[in-house]
Backbone:
């Protein structure tokens, strides 16, 4: 019997409804084309994708720096001026009553508030594209 492409069973195939068969191993080992192509695929990114990723990372750092600036400004304001407004609007029970500790806790809470308010700085279409690139590569 001659061997041709119709009689070759590729790696990973299963024979069913057969009690027995003869087999010949051809092209075995790591150097075969099938084994060389069976590894993890590399995602090819264009220069525009790399540029967009760099821009998105820059926008996220800009957002974090704005939140950090607003947090520091809020902490300074709460320490200097804001404690006098406790007569009209007292701090929550979670916040310590001393001026410096209370201002620190409020400033930390304000950081997350500003992160929620200013998250529209990052365009959602670029954010989805960046996350898609990260999961693929």
Residues:
């Amino acid at each position: 019997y001659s061997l041709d492409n119709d009689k070759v069973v590729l790696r990973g195939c299963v024979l069913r409804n057969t009690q027995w068969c003869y087999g010949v191993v051809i092209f075995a080992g790591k150097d075969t084309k099938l084994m060389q192509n069976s590894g993890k695929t590399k995602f090819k990114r264009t220069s525009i994708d790399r540029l967009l990723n760099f821009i998105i990372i820059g926008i996220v750092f800009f957002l974090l720096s704005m939140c950090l600036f607003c947090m520091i400004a809020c902490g300074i304001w709460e320490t200097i001026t804001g404690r006098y407004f406790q007569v009209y609007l007292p701090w929550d029970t979670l916040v310590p009553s001393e001026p410096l500790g209370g201002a620190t806790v409020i400033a930390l809470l304000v950081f997350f508030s500003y992160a929620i308010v200013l998250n529209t700085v990052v365009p959602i279409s670029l954010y989805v594209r960046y996350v898609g690139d990260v999961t693929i590569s």
Summary: The helical segments are 33-36, 47-80, 99-117, 124-136. The radius of gyration is 31 Å. The first helix runs from residue 33 to 36.
